[in-house]
Amino acid sequence: MGAAALALGLLAGGANAGFLAFSGDTAASTETTGSNFSGTLNYNFNGGTSGTLVISLTNTTPVSVGGYLTAFVFNVNSADAGASIALSSATDTDFLDAAGSSAVPFGGSYRAGAGLSGTWLGGGAPQPGIAIGNTETFTFNVTATDAASLTEGSFLEGPYAFDFVVRFRGLNNGGSDKVPTPTPGPVALAGIAGLVATRRRR
Protein backbone atom coordinates (compact mmCIF):
# COMPACT_ATOMS: atom_id res chain seq x y z
CA MET A 1 0.00 0.00 0.00
CA GLY A 2 1.47 3.36 -1.04
CA ALA A 3 1.32 6.20 1.48
CA ALA A 4 -0.04 8.47 -1.24
CA ALA A 5 -2.90 6.08 -1.96
CA LEU A 6 -4.37 5.86 1.53
CA ALA A 7 -4.41 8.34 4.38
CA LEU A 8 -6.49 9.16 7.41
CA GLY A 9 -8.05 12.56 7.90
CA LEU A 10 -10.21 13.81 10.75
CA LEU A 11 -13.15 16.10 10.24
CA ALA A 12 -13.83 18.61 12.98
CA GLY A 13 -16.75 17.98 15.30
CA GLY A 14 -19.34 15.25 15.54
CA ALA A 15 -19.45 11.88 17.29
CA ASN A 16 -18.48 10.03 14.11
CA ALA A 17 -15.90 12.39 12.70
CA GLY A 18 -13.47 10.06 10.97
CA PHE A 19 -12.94 9.94 7.23
CA LEU A 20 -10.59 7.96 5.07
CA ALA A 21 -8.86 9.62 2.11
CA PHE A 22 -7.68 7.40 -0.75
CA SER A 23 -6.73 7.44 -4.42
CA GLY A 24 -6.20 5.13 -7.35
CA ASP A 25 -3.22 2.93 -8.16
CA THR A 26 -2.47 3.94 -11.74
CA ALA A 27 0.22 1.28 -12.08
CA ALA A 28 -2.41 -1.41 -11.46
CA SER A 29 -4.98 -0.02 -13.91
CA THR A 30 -6.05 -2.13 -16.85
CA GLU A 31 -4.77 0.25 -19.54
CA THR A 32 -2.24 2.42 -17.61
CA THR A 33 -3.56 5.53 -19.34
CA GLY A 34 -2.90 7.86 -16.39
CA SER A 35 -6.60 8.13 -15.51
CA ASN A 36 -6.92 8.63 -11.76
CA PHE A 37 -9.09 9.83 -8.91
CA SER A 38 -9.03 10.78 -5.25
CA GLY A 39 -11.79 10.31 -2.74
CA THR A 40 -12.95 10.15 0.84
CA LEU A 41 -15.04 7.64 2.78
CA ASN A 42 -17.11 8.61 5.82
CA TYR A 43 -19.08 5.93 7.67
CA ASN A 44 -21.56 6.54 10.49
CA PHE A 45 -23.26 3.82 12.54
CA ASN A 46 -26.93 4.77 12.97
CA GLY A 47 -27.93 2.06 15.45
CA GLY A 48 -29.13 -1.52 15.24
CA THR A 49 -28.12 -2.94 11.85
CA SER A 50 -28.02 0.40 10.05
CA GLY A 51 -25.23 2.68 8.91
CA THR A 52 -24.66 5.47 6.39
CA LEU A 53 -21.68 5.61 4.05
CA VAL A 54 -20.76 8.82 2.20
CA ILE A 55 -18.26 8.60 -0.66
CA SER A 56 -16.85 11.65 -2.44
CA LEU A 57 -14.88 11.15 -5.65
CA THR A 58 -12.80 13.65 -7.63
CA ASN A 59 -11.57 13.04 -11.17
CA THR A 60 -7.84 13.85 -10.97
CA THR A 61 -6.95 12.60 -14.46
CA PRO A 62 -4.48 14.84 -16.35
CA VAL A 63 -6.18 17.04 -18.96
CA SER A 64 -3.86 15.58 -21.59
CA VAL A 65 -5.46 12.16 -20.96
CA GLY A 66 -9.06 13.39 -20.83
CA GLY A 67 -12.12 11.39 -19.98
CA TYR A 68 -14.87 11.11 -17.41
CA LEU A 69 -15.34 9.06 -14.25
CA THR A 70 -18.43 7.03 -15.14
CA ALA A 71 -18.76 4.28 -12.52
CA PHE A 72 -17.29 2.76 -9.37
CA VAL A 73 -17.80 -0.47 -7.43
CA PHE A 74 -16.69 -1.68 -4.02
CA ASN A 75 -17.04 -4.39 -1.39
CA VAL A 76 -17.27 -4.48 2.40
CA ASN A 77 -15.41 -6.60 4.91
CA SER A 78 -18.50 -7.65 6.89
CA ALA A 79 -19.15 -10.86 8.82
CA ASP A 80 -22.74 -10.65 7.55
CA ALA A 81 -22.93 -12.55 4.25
CA GLY A 82 -26.26 -10.86 3.58
CA ALA A 83 -25.05 -7.30 4.19
CA SER A 84 -26.49 -4.81 1.71
CA ILE A 85 -25.29 -1.41 0.54
CA ALA A 86 -27.76 0.60 -1.50
CA LEU A 87 -27.29 4.00 -3.13
CA SER A 88 -29.74 6.44 -1.59
CA SER A 89 -28.66 9.72 -3.22
CA ALA A 90 -25.99 11.30 -5.41
CA THR A 91 -25.09 14.89 -6.24
CA ASP A 92 -24.98 13.75 -9.88
CA THR A 93 -28.37 12.13 -10.50
CA ASP A 94 -27.09 10.48 -13.70
CA PHE A 95 -25.45 7.93 -11.38
CA LEU A 96 -27.71 5.09 -10.26
CA ASP A 97 -27.17 2.05 -8.05
CA ALA A 98 -24.87 -0.54 -9.65
CA ALA A 99 -24.69 -3.22 -6.93
CA GLY A 100 -23.61 -6.66 -8.16
CA SER A 101 -21.62 -5.32 -11.11
CA SER A 102 -18.63 -7.20 -12.47
CA ALA A 103 -15.34 -5.32 -12.78
CA VAL A 104 -13.27 -7.94 -14.58
CA PRO A 105 -10.32 -8.47 -14.33
CA PHE A 106 -10.43 -7.24 -10.73
CA GLY A 107 -13.52 -9.14 -9.59
CA GLY A 108 -16.65 -10.85 -10.83
CA SER A 109 -19.29 -9.34 -8.56
CA TYR A 110 -19.05 -6.30 -6.29
CA ARG A 111 -21.32 -5.72 -3.30
CA ALA A 112 -22.10 -2.10 -4.14
CA GLY A 113 -21.46 0.77 -6.51
CA ALA A 114 -22.88 3.44 -8.78
CA GLY A 115 -22.62 4.20 -12.45
CA LEU A 116 -24.17 6.18 -15.27
CA SER A 117 -27.62 4.65 -15.84
CA GLY A 118 -26.76 2.11 -13.14
CA THR A 119 -24.18 0.23 -15.21
CA TRP A 120 -20.46 -0.45 -14.86
CA LEU A 121 -19.58 -0.70 -18.54
CA GLY A 122 -21.96 2.00 -19.71
CA GLY A 123 -23.59 2.13 -23.09
CA GLY A 124 -24.32 5.81 -23.52
CA ALA A 125 -22.23 8.96 -23.75
CA PRO A 126 -19.66 9.39 -20.96
CA GLN A 127 -20.11 13.17 -20.71
CA PRO A 128 -22.68 13.00 -17.85
CA GLY A 129 -19.92 11.45 -15.71
CA ILE A 130 -17.51 13.31 -13.45
CA ALA A 131 -15.33 15.63 -15.53
CA ILE A 132 -11.67 16.29 -14.77
CA GLY A 133 -11.34 18.47 -11.67
CA ASN A 134 -14.93 17.91 -10.56
CA THR A 135 -16.19 16.15 -7.43
CA GLU A 136 -19.45 14.31 -6.77
CA THR A 137 -20.78 12.80 -3.54
CA PHE A 138 -22.68 9.53 -3.11
CA THR A 139 -24.64 8.39 -0.05
CA PHE A 140 -25.31 4.71 0.63
CA ASN A 141 -27.55 2.99 3.17
CA VAL A 142 -25.68 0.12 4.83
CA THR A 143 -27.54 -2.79 6.45
CA ALA A 144 -25.51 -5.44 8.27
CA THR A 145 -25.69 -7.34 11.53
CA ASP A 146 -22.20 -6.02 12.36
CA ALA A 147 -22.92 -2.43 11.29
CA ALA A 148 -21.66 -1.19 14.66
CA SER A 149 -18.16 -2.62 14.08
CA LEU A 150 -17.66 -1.44 10.50
CA THR A 151 -15.21 1.38 9.82
CA GLU A 152 -14.31 3.46 6.80
CA GLY A 153 -11.55 0.99 5.99
CA SER A 154 -14.06 -1.88 5.83
CA PHE A 155 -15.26 -0.57 2.47
CA LEU A 156 -11.84 -0.98 0.87
CA GLU A 157 -11.64 -4.64 1.88
CA GLY A 158 -13.25 -7.81 0.58
CA PRO A 159 -12.59 -11.03 -1.30
CA TYR A 160 -10.46 -9.58 -4.10
CA ALA A 161 -6.97 -8.14 -4.42
CA PHE A 162 -8.67 -4.81 -5.22
CA ASP A 163 -12.04 -4.12 -3.62
CA PHE A 164 -12.67 -0.55 -4.80
CA VAL A 165 -12.44 0.05 -8.55
CA VAL A 166 -13.28 3.12 -10.65
CA ARG A 167 -14.09 3.23 -14.37
CA PHE A 168 -13.17 5.98 -16.83
CA ARG A 169 -14.53 6.44 -20.33
CA GLY A 170 -14.30 8.99 -23.15
CA LEU A 171 -10.54 9.50 -22.99
CA ASN A 172 -8.93 11.77 -25.59
CA ASN A 173 -7.70 8.71 -27.48
CA GLY A 174 -11.20 7.24 -27.49
CA GLY A 175 -10.27 4.63 -24.91
CA SER A 176 -11.25 3.77 -21.36
CA ASP A 177 -9.59 2.54 -18.17
CA LYS A 178 -10.32 0.77 -14.87
CA VAL A 179 -8.35 2.03 -11.88
CA PRO A 180 -8.29 0.18 -8.52
CA THR A 181 -7.48 1.36 -5.01
CA PRO A 182 -4.95 -0.64 -3.00
CA THR A 183 -6.54 -2.64 -0.21
CA PRO A 184 -5.06 -1.44 3.09
CA GLY A 185 -3.20 -4.08 5.08
CA PRO A 186 -4.35 -5.20 8.54
CA VAL A 187 -1.71 -3.14 10.35
CA ALA A 188 -2.73 0.04 8.54
CA LEU A 189 -6.40 -0.63 9.17
CA ALA A 190 -5.78 -1.30 12.87
CA GLY A 191 -4.05 2.06 13.15
CA ILE A 192 -6.84 3.83 11.28
CA ALA A 193 -9.53 2.20 13.44
CA GLY A 194 -7.69 3.18 16.61
CA LEU A 195 -7.29 6.80 15.56
CA VAL A 196 -10.93 7.09 14.54
CA ALA A 197 -12.13 5.44 17.75
CA THR A 198 -9.99 7.80 19.84
CA ARG A 199 -11.36 10.85 18.03
CA ARG A 200 -14.95 9.59 18.39
CA ARG A 201 -14.57 9.06 22.14
CA ARG A 202 -13.41 12.66 22.46
Question: Gist?
Answer:
The protein is mainly β and 202 residues long. Helices cover 8% and strands 36% of the residues.
Task: Give me some keywords for this one.
202 residues, mainly beta, Immunoglobulin-like, six-stranded antiparallel sheet, five-stranded antiparallel sheet, globular, disordered C terminus
Task: Describe the 3D structure.
This protein is mainly beta. The chain has a single domain (6-201), classed as Sandwich (Immunoglobulin-like), CATH 2.60.40.1170. It is built from one helix and eleven strands. The chain has one helix at residues 186-201, and strands at 6-10, 18-23, 37-47, 50-59, 68-74, 84-90, 95-97, 112-116, 135-143, 164-169, 177-180. The strands form two sheets. The protein has a six-stranded antiparallel β-sheet with strand order 1-2-3-4-9-6. Strands 7-8-5-10-11 form a five-stranded antiparallel β-sheet, with no helix packed on it. The model is unreliable at 8-17 and 186-202 (pLDDT under 50).
- Give the number of domains: 1
Rg from Cα: 16 Å
Helix content: under 10%
Count of discrete alpha- or pi-helical segments spanning 4 or more residues? 1
How would the global form be characterised?
globular
Report the mean per-residue pLDDT as an integer.
87
Instruction: Name the quaternary structure.
Output: single chain
For the record, the CATH class is: Mainly Beta
- Largest beta-sheet details: 6 strands, antiparallel
Please name the CATH topology.
Immunoglobulin-like
